[in-house]
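Hi F.,

I've been meaning to write this up properly since the lab meeting, where we talked about keeping a consistent format for the predictions we share between groups. The idea is simple: the sequence comes first, exactly as it goes in, then the structure tokens exactly as they come out, then a line or two of notes. No screenshots and no reformatting. I'm using this chain as the first example so we have something concrete to point to.
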Amino acid sequence: MSGCLRRLPWRQSTVLVHRRLLSRDIGQPTAYTHPYLLKEGEILPGIHKSEFLERRRNLMREVASTHAGKTNKKHLVIVPGAPVQYMSNDVPYRFHQSTDLLYMTGFQEPDAVLLLESTGGLLEHKSILYVRPRDPHRELWDGPRAGPDGAVTFTGVTEAYTIDELGTHLEQKYSKMGYSVWYCTEEYVHPDHDDVIVNSLTNSSDSRIDSVHTYTQLLHKLRLVKSPAELNLMRKAGQIAASAFRETMRSTRPDVMEYQLESVFEHHCKMKGAQTLSFPPVVAGGSRANCLHYIANNRELRAGDLVLFDAGCEYHGYVSDVTRTWPVSGQFTAAQRELYEAVLRVKQASIKASRPGVTLSQLNRSAANMISSELQALGLVPKNSSASELTQAINRLFPHHLGHFLGMDTHDTPTVDREVVLSPGMVITIEPGVYVPKDWHVATKTAKEMLGTGIRIEDDVVITENGCEVLNANCPQTVEEIAELCRGMAKC
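Output, unedited:
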């Protein structure tokens, strides 16, 4: 056994050392550096380190429930964190942690890896975090690091080592001991660490790995249902986005550039406490709204057009995702209003139907049927259309799903099927839309005025015991509310 394995790890600290270590900056908010944000023992606002410990225990329980868990008692779960990404040369993007590692530890430094090792029975485990070493030279340039000592004290993991020890530990301590290894085999979170992990566990001639499995579906199952503390962060993200939309509507006028409107939204979100936006916003004026993921945002808004604005913000690891569509000039035309209110009726009915016991797929089918009826009433689809013609029309005019799961990621827990029955604590989006191509064949004058128009309205919804709660409830949605804001009469 090498010297690095004989060296004592950083373990749970004594009270004296605990106080000393938390009295320095470790590279992310702590109760010491941000007392206005975090209470003692919290890793994220309102989320205590004990909740992260319970998440790690829950993942080991999920492992125990599998066939592999019942046939082997020695398991090693490896959760990699994200690396720093670069725009070019040595210019980095602002770091964003892998959400799986963030969910399991709350640790927000790059190049970290979490190991969960079963000990004395599968439900008993040891959590080991591998992190960047303290480095005065690099910290001069990039900011303070937690180091193994700070990582143990702040996150509450059992032990911590420097990341350069990971390969040696895997090879010498785990590769020959018959462990079942659980890893994110379907994606490469950190290519450099992926190589180290795979090579260290498999390259030795006497390697005795029992089996390899992916933990992603097990972890996404846990992430799907939010705790009360998580929901509080998501409510805040929804409230901030709602407030930002109100300000953005008030700032809308002809001749403003789409990216200028985007900047109003981002500014307001950050002034209200959000750290970043959830994703590059869609700010699509006129017929550009028919491009579902239009993010160039480089055109001028024109009088008489609508602007479709799809955006959200991230508040301490949890995101919002909201869409509104409104008139650039402040007033809907008669045709625009008819189409808008049709979409709004579908959204309101879909939210009313969101409750425990239904699935996203059922909600989507119901929404598609409602949109079909609305389109026929508007003259966008002939009332005498056959079933196949109606299906083709709906697929063209409503080409996306009604919603998706939401949480730490915008498209959260992607391995969870939309046939999963909704239960309290799950958060979904409800986002019906209608996108009418310029060359769509219609017969009536009003329907012709809808050509080239795209409208989507989206809310974030948490399933409750008796129904649901809209997390961005203060976001304007009726024609009257929007008109009042665009005229500058309503307060933000």
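Notes:
The longest strand covers residues 125-131.
Residues 1-7 have pLDDT under 50 and may be disordered.

If this format works for you, I'll send the rest the same way.

G.
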